[in-house]
Amino acid sequence: MRQTVVAGNWKMNKTPAQTTELINELKPLVAESANKCIVCVPFTSLANAIEACKGSNIEVGAQNMYFEESGAYTGEIAPSMLTEMGVKYVIIGHSERRQYFAETDETVNKKVIKAFEHGLVPIICVGESLEQREQGITVELVSMQTKIALLGLSAEQVKKTIIAYEPIWAIGTGKTATSDQAQEVCKAIRDTVADVFGKDAADEVIVQYGGSVNAGNSKELFAKEDIDGGLVGGASLKAQDFSVIVNS
Ligand code: PGA
């Protein structure tokens, strides 16, 4: 039985002080949840987030990392910098990183491998554009993104991985995929994992849906067989809304 995992992707929002405030508001609202709750905050808010989450059931993730250990990579953050702080999760390959910061399936794969070397759980984002959906290549494209992202991992590692299906046209647009559309692609991701890594890995890998998840649609989405929770942007910035999603 897979656990439902809900992760908030705060993107470039909240200062450190605002982070402490939001987490303190959120903590009592999700304290009784049977689902896993993660907040992925900006690098500059990680220390505050980890401090604020102490003794609670909320875990902390980063939104990106680099695939080298250290060195002359101005502006980048190494995995050991995250783990030493107590960070447990890292979003990798969000479509905004792919779109604005030239990330590719190959760099995503390098980061995923590096994350595992350091014991970080990657939340790998895959998903199609509206044009790709209209061309009818969604399942093919997302399967390929998934295969490349996971290249070189063991089945045991894949079992611990979180994959977030995020159709680009649904992110921040208020246009959620229907629960059937989301289920279709999340199932295709699980089938892809089964093909490459076997049924056990496919049964355990967490597949989330992301893209305009809100307090009104999360329940229906997460009830689908192959949707194990969500990656939530906008609605994760409001404690009340996010707690409803986490408790779905
Ligand atoms: P959204 O973002 O919930 O604001 O659509 C989701 C995401 O980008 O992870």
Please tell me about this protein's structure.
This protein is an alpha/beta fold and 248 residues long. The protein has a single domain (5-246), classed as Aldolase class I (TIM Barrel). 45% of the residues lie in helices and 15% in strands. The chain has twelve helices and eight strands. The protein has helices spanning 16-30, 46-53, 79-85, 95-100, 105-117, 130-134, 138-150, 155-160, 179-197, 199-204, 218-222, 239-246; strands at residues 5-9, 36-40, 58-62, 89-92, 121-126, 162-165, 206-210, 229-232. It has an eight-stranded parallel barrel, surrounded by five helices. α2 (46-53) links the parallel β2 (36-40) and β3 (58-62). α1 packs across α12. The longest helix is centred in the C-terminal third of the chain and has 19 residues, at 179-197. The two termini are 16 Å apart. The site of 2-phosphoglycolic acid has 13 residues, from β8.
Keywords:
about 250 residues, alpha/beta, TIM Barrel, 8-stranded parallel β-barrel, 12 helices, 8 strands, binds 2-phosphoglycolic acid
